[in-house]
Amino acid sequence: MMEKGLHDIENLTREDLELVLQTSDTFLEICTRKVKKIPTLRGKTICLFFIEPSTRTRISFEIAAKRMSADVINFTASTSSLQKGESLTDTVKTIMAMGVDLFVLRHSAPGSSRKVEQVAGVPVINGGDGPHAHPTQAMLDLYTIYRHKKKFQDLKVAIIGDIFHSRVARSNIFSLTKMGVDVTLCGPPTLIPKEIEKLGVRVTYSVEDACRNADVIMCLRMQLERQQSGLFPSMREYIQLFRIDDRRFALAKDDAIIMHPGPMNRGIEITPEIAYHPRSVIEEQVTNGVAVRMALFYLLLGRGNEEITD
Amino acid sequence: MKKLLIKNARVLSPEDGIDEILDIVIRDRKIEKIGKRLTGDETMDMAGLVVCPGFIDMHVHLREPGYEEKETVYTGTKAGLRGGFIALACMANTKPVADNRATLEFILNQNQKAGFLKLYPIGAVTKGQKGEELAEIADIYAAGAVAISDDGKGINSCAIMRRALEYNKMFHGPLIVHAEEQTLAKDGMMNEGLVASLLGFHGIPREAEDVIVARDLELIASTDSSVHFAHVSTLRSTALIREAKKKGLPVSAEVTPHHLLLTDTAVKSFDTNTKVNPPLRTLNDIEALCEGLRDGTIDAIASDHAPHTFEDKDCEYSFAPFGISGVETSVPLMLTYIVKKGVLTLGDFVRKVSVNPAKILHLPLGTIREGTEANLTVLDLEASGEVDPEIFLSKGRNTPFKGWKYTGRAVYAIVDGRVNKIG
Ligand SMILES: [Zn+2]
């Protein structure tokens, strides 16, 4: 699997995902040690190439890389500077000339991680390419669900909010359906991508319907600037129709967990009580994110290098 | 004057009811005689080849003036000749826009200097193609335009469109419609549907095309003015045009090779050469377009040749410009994947690339007759090869057809009696 890089979930198999889950267990254990450092990636250089700002994702990758003793370089640029004259190709060539073994790319344009890999000739991990894909987020979500539910078969997962603009939703749809999970999408029809049911998911516009008997409720971040584009009439109306509160959460199974990829708009997609509910696993997702990213670095770059636990 | 004798060719001219092995004598630019066992001063044995009325690509972008790094009249017409065409009609979205006499005369002048083939410029409908005020349409025709079009952009205002249709009735050319409702197409990168949903792209829905076709058909019914729909891409707009033709409305339409041969799944590669406007659609649409070609709903095949530089396309999909460099691949791809696959007979194909474009643009072409100028395309239906953008004569090497195999291509383009061998 992932001989080259990690661009999306769509092209992975169930076995690929299972391998990531297993490997993540090892690295989660390392993350609980007193000295959280292993030499697996000593001498390797990882470039965190962030064309679109994202502090949380970048830090998670950076910690994962450093715990494995890789050298990390941060390259940040704005999409607008790239759009004006300076091409992605030229920038990548420049960085490659300095010697990089792996890129983590965050970019606003779908497909850009493949483009970088073509130019660079080294593996690229897609750290989010516009609304297209966010495979590491989907893997850490899958891992978090697995740690709580210990299975995927017959699980019901509801994904709620702005599906249209969400790379998290897209990648989760693929990872969950590949594992046999029953996925329901819920949001206003203007935020549901066209023909998405063809992927074998259910679509509902009723949040109550989506929450009923769910094992997992996954809220998506509402990007507040989208409100401007008129895809729904007002935040007030959105909250009334789709926010997860006590009443709606109570419709889910008794042991249901609540997830959110962060950063949260508290009070918009989720009430504070639910965000901090005992069955909220939002913080755990962040912790697991580091372990999963370590696992991915290992699978792409560190295998055969050294024993991982020495 | 020397007589050039073309011997033993299969002469195929649907408009003249000819499809047999004949000889043709060309003298002083003109076809002097068509018959059997003719004689001449110089003989070209064309046994095994098909002589057709000269092919016309009625929809190309030559980029000059303004974008000479993408293409010039010189390189674009040279590429057109290589593609087997004896005439091209070029769109007005140059810089400045061809909405005035000076620009049109410049384009014609550049073609005279290049001297490869016949070029028929199309002028803009509105000033600067902004869709706001009518351009000086009379002056545009006086300068040599054969039609008007804001191609590249849709005309969103119903009032402007209606006025343009009314005004254009004074002239001999059609208004060529780029059917795209701009508020629906806005931000769109590809066809709206499952593939766009997977890739996270804003889609360009079929309705962006369909509503404009429906609107314009209503408008021509009331104004009795003729339109030609460029690059039809959807099932529904094909059906609307079919219905309008049944009612006898003055409508014609064209389709491009890429809309016939590729679906939106090609975009999964994120190859920026698959980015076109209108976007690649689905198999359902392709079937409808093929049916439209067969039953005459769609009159013409045109490449919508849209060359871009390597740098223009060497970027993220979202930032790439729309367009395929198509004038050199159109004929071989259509002969292979439309004629050989049985969608069209060779005779019907000749109608789509010669007879009908000539009629739509009122050009004195599309026939093989004694006394007319010798404008002919000669095909070798057995010549095979594969698409290689590295050898394009166009400056634009932006093609999603790289490596596609073909059997059949043009081997001569005869322009006003001058024979050009196509290598
Ligand atoms: Zn065009």
Which characteristics define this entry?
heterodimer, A: 310 residues, alpha/beta, five-stranded parallel sheet, four-stranded parallel sheet, 9 strands, B: 423 residues, eight-stranded mixed sheet, eight-stranded parallel sheet, 13 helices, 30% helix, 23% strand, globular, binds zinc ion
Structural features, described:
Chain A is of the alpha/beta class and about 300 residues long. Helices cover about 40% and strands about 15% of the residues of chain A. Chain A has helices at about 15-30, 55-65, 80-85, 90-95, 110-120, 135-150, 165-180, 205-210, 235-240, 245-250, 270-275, 280-300; strands spanning about 45-50, 70-75, 100-105, 125-130, 155-160, 180-185, 200-205, 215-220, 255-260. In chain A, the strands form two sheets. Chain A has a five-stranded parallel sheet with strand order 7-6-5-8-9. A four-stranded parallel sheet of chain A has the order 2-1-3-4, with helices on both faces. In chain A, helix 5 links the parallel strand 3 and strand 4. The longest helix of chain A is centred in the C-terminal third of the chain and has 21 residues, at about 280-300. The relative contact order of chain A is 0.17. Chain B is an alpha/beta fold and about 425 residues long. Chain B has helices spanning about 75-80, 100-115, 135-140, 160-170, 180-185, 195-200, 205-225, 235-245, 255-260, 285-295, 310-315, 330-340, 345-360; strands at about 5-15, 20-25, 30-35, 40-45, 50-55, 55-60, 85-90, 120-125, 145-150, 175, 190, 205, 225-230, 250-255, 300, 375-385, 405-415, 420. In chain B, strands 1, 2, 3, 4, 5, 16, 17 and 18 form an eight-stranded mixed sheet that branches. An eight-stranded parallel sheet of chain B has the order 6-7-8-9-10-13-14-15. A two-stranded parallel ribbon of chain B has the order 11-12. In chain B, helix 7 (about 205-225) packs parallel to helix 8 and helix 8 runs parallel beside helix 10 (about 285-295). The longest helix of chain B is centred in the middle third of the chain and has 18 residues, at about 205-225. The mean pLDDT of chain B is about 95. The interface of A and B includes residues 82, 83, 112, 114 and 133 of A. The complex binds zinc ion. Zinc ion binds near residues 61, 91, 152 and 304 of chain B. Zinc ion binds near residues 59 and 304 of chain B.
